[in-house]
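# nightly structure sweep
# worker-07 picked up a monomer target from the shared queue
# config: single-sequence mode, recycle default, output format = structure tokens
# input follows
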Amino acid sequence: MVFRQRVKSLCQGLIKVKTKIAVISDIHANADALTTVLEELKNKSVDITIFLGDILTYGCQPREVVSILNEYKSENPAIFIKGNHDQFYFDLQSNVKEPSYKLPKFIDESVNWTLKKISPLLLKDIFTWHDNYRIGDVYFAHANPFLYGDWSYIEKPQDLHRSFQELRKKNVFSGVFGHSHRQLFICSKKNNLYEMNAYSSEVNNIDQLIINTGSIGQPRGKGLGYVLLEIKNDKLFKASFEKIKINFENSIDLIRQTKFSQETKKKLIDYLEI
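# output follows
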């Protein structure tokens, strides 16, 4: 109850003091990576942690990840936002309707394997999930600022311009997303786009900012990491990337030990390339 009250006080209304937020995305059932990051956060003086979704699929430690997150949220203020992979399990475990999408074979194999591993747990009931979240002038969602269920990537200039326009409609300065597994700071100034390495309101004079946290559990050749934010007086004050190093030998061994097809095993192992 104490932690729920603390989350409520931090996230509702204006933030009057400086608040430090860790934003983590795309864990993808990698308990080794999650443990490394949460251990690191102990030395970061974080006030609240936001998980941007896709906690399962691909990796072979789904039970462990759920357990670690469950324990973490019981001791630390945490917000959970739904991603497309989380929605897979909500749909498949609901028995209400057949999903309208058809998954690629390797994802289908991984999802069905994961369903058996986490059963009888219902993913939607384990955490309090949000479609999106807002703290001060920062908007958080899994993939983009559009309607929940639109899993479009926002890497091309036209998509970034459209995203900035949507953020303006929401009256926010910055959007923080995951999904693409690529760490990225893109700012807009006078309708021009620029890539940045970090943000400080005391240094950078820009109109808007989009941040992609990257992934902590599956690099796909794009590196690994998460993001630290500081919000002061309801405004984004600072933002920075935090790179992490993970040894994936255990993750690869666990994939090899499954009964996945050789094609699926190769795909999942390739996704772990740094």
